[in-house]
Amino acid sequence: MQRIIRFLSFIFLIFLLFPSAAGAAEGGGGFPTMDIPPGHYAGIICIVIFVMSYVLVLLEEKMHLRKSKPVMLGAALIWFVIAIIAPQFGVTHDELHVAVVHGLEEYSALLLFLLAAMTYISALQERNVFAALRGKLVQAGLNMRQMFWATGILAFCLSPVADNLTTALVMGAVVMAVGKHDPKFVALACINVACAANAGGAFSPFGDITTLMVWQAGHVDFFEFFSLFIPSVICFIVPAIPMSFFVSKDLPEALKQEVHMKRGAKLIIFLGIGTIATAVSFEQILGLPPFMGMMAGLSVLMMASYGIQRVGRRKDKNFDILKLVALAEWDTLLFFFGVMFSVSGLTYLGYMGLASEALYQGIGPSATNIFMGLASAVVDNIPIMFSVLSMNPEMSHFQWLLITLTTGVGGSLLSVGSAAGVALMGVAYGHYTFLKHLKWTPVIAFGYAAAIWAHFLVNGAAHGGP
Questions:
Q1: What are 41-61's pLDDT values in tens digits?
Q2: How many structural domains compose the chain?
Q3: Residue span of the structural domain in which 250 resides
Q4: Distance, CA of 157 to CA of 176 (rounded, Å)
Q5: Is 411 domain-assigned?
Q6: Would you give the DSSP letter of residue 228?
Q7: Full-model pTM
Q8: Residue 64: partners with Cβ closer than 8 Å, 6 or more residues away
């Protein structure tokens, strides 16, 4: 079944990227594209390179080849092909340089923002903040159905700040600690946590990479994302209610697990909140990019770590922020590089403009954005969103919020459709599987449809909806 899903994702990528006509137009990033004829050999080669690199990404679990490696190589080869044919179309070295640097500007802003955020998350993990939260939940004395709701609600509330992947790992550990002898509870609770984490991340710029990309691209202001709160709640609640009836009210085995936060944990929590506020203030008040606020917050965290190491009676010389920076998810960060530069290369060739015309002008923005959300269940939502941003279609705020919602929660339809689901399959290996999640896909799809309906109902008039 997973191979069928992946094969369909390849077909979608080819449909999205394959050129149907030529034309010089403005690319999604604002620079002119190359005027290559339809079916030009160089364009076909670039598409094949991109699809093949993504095939290797989807086979990561089988091949144990990190996902960043094939897409980084693919990006380099795509731009190599573009550079070879550029003189044939009158493109100078300076013009080519401008096109590449344009992509670097977008990537570097995302890289610095995420690096600061990931370092804060690593610091909180190292100071046992999440472990202490897990211990409190395990000892709370809740029955299995109450624990089902507690982990789901906490996942929904935590993911807007700590991203859906970290949230899934923390809540997944709680689920396994409570229900390790109850496979049915583990499966249902993991499905619920995946849906809740994805839904919670959809209404916050910090909750998912796709929301962050839309915010940094300037299509939606920071506070406008909170218009998606009600649709996100509905997307979480609708499938959770019927699933909860299949969870017993038995009490779990009594567990004694006392975990204490390390020195400086509360200070880092406070600094993390302050860093988010700084990033928002820099963008909203000063007009500076959000990553400047995040880097300022990272510098304050580094100074705080110096105090934890050297000041007071309980000095902790092992707490080194630079080591935590090194432990950031570099595979993911470099994967973003490969995806963004591959898509920017295809944009430069003019394919994203053609896809935008075929999709957004052909079948309309609402249908396209809903379809993109469904596609994100089989193709990672990051290349989906960056492809949309590269197309740069003329859309209202309502439609940008719609694509943010659909790509954020569409991955919940399948266990392999989101980072949260994939992480939980690892945490609850053997208990939470692709097929067990697929059994509840119709209910989750109903929640997906209900969230879209709620968005049209609640935000249609306020944000220029259809």
A1: 888 898 899 888 878 876 766
A2: 1
A3: 109-326
A4: 20
A5: no
A6: G
A7: 0.73
A8: none
